[in-house]
Amino acid sequence: MCNCIFCKIIAGEIPSAKVYEDDKVLAIKDINPQAPVHVLVMPKKHMSSLLAMDSSNAEDVTAVMSAITKIAADMGISEENGMRVINNCGPDGAQSVMHLHFHLLAGRKLGETIV
Ligand code: 5GP
Ligand code: ZN
Question: If we measure between CA atoms, which residue out of 112, 114, 113, 106 comes closest to residue 81?
């Protein structure tokens, strides 16, 4: 049985605030938001991180990127205001949930620091 918290959210076993869903992608509000908009965008198919991307899941990763663009447009994010998309990958990248996800942060002017 999968013990991944995001797989449990995708399966509806753990509640979440859904922002967007299609056949390949789920996007939810982060439980601990770091900006007025803080959405986690993930493939429904479990993969641990971008380092696990291969020909078997490349379509799912592409679908996540397309979903980010759609979600941004739905939220009024444009090239005028902008956003930040972050992917923490593995131990040195401080990834805490080992199910690939991208953080979409927006809604205020973010700082320049990324480390
Ligand atoms: P990471 O550090 O792996 O890049 O980010 C994991 C993110 O998942 C964190 O920002 C954390 O707040 C969020 N998170 C952890 N558990 C839950 C949860 O049960 N629900 C939601 N919505 N977000 C979660
Ligand atoms: Zn998972």
Answer: 106
Enclosing domain of residue 19: 5-106
Q: Whose CA is nearest to atom 16 of ligand 1?
A: 31
Could you give the count of Cα atoms lying within 13 Å of 26 in the half-sphere of its Cβ?
19
Predicted pLDDT of residue 33: 98
pLDDT for 2 equals 78
CATH at residue 43: 3.30.428.10
Catalytic, 101? Answer yes
Could you tell me if residue 38 is inside a domain? Answer: yes
Q: Which of 38, 46, 99, 101 is catalytic?
A: 101
Domain total in the chain: 1
Instruction: Enumerate residue ranges in the chain where pLDDT < 70.
Output: 1
Q: Is residue 112 part of a domain?
A: no
113 lines ligand 1 (CB under 6 A): no
Residue at 56 is within a domain: yes
Closest CA to 41 of 30, 27, 53: 27
> Quick check: CB of 88 below 6 Å from ligand 1?
yes
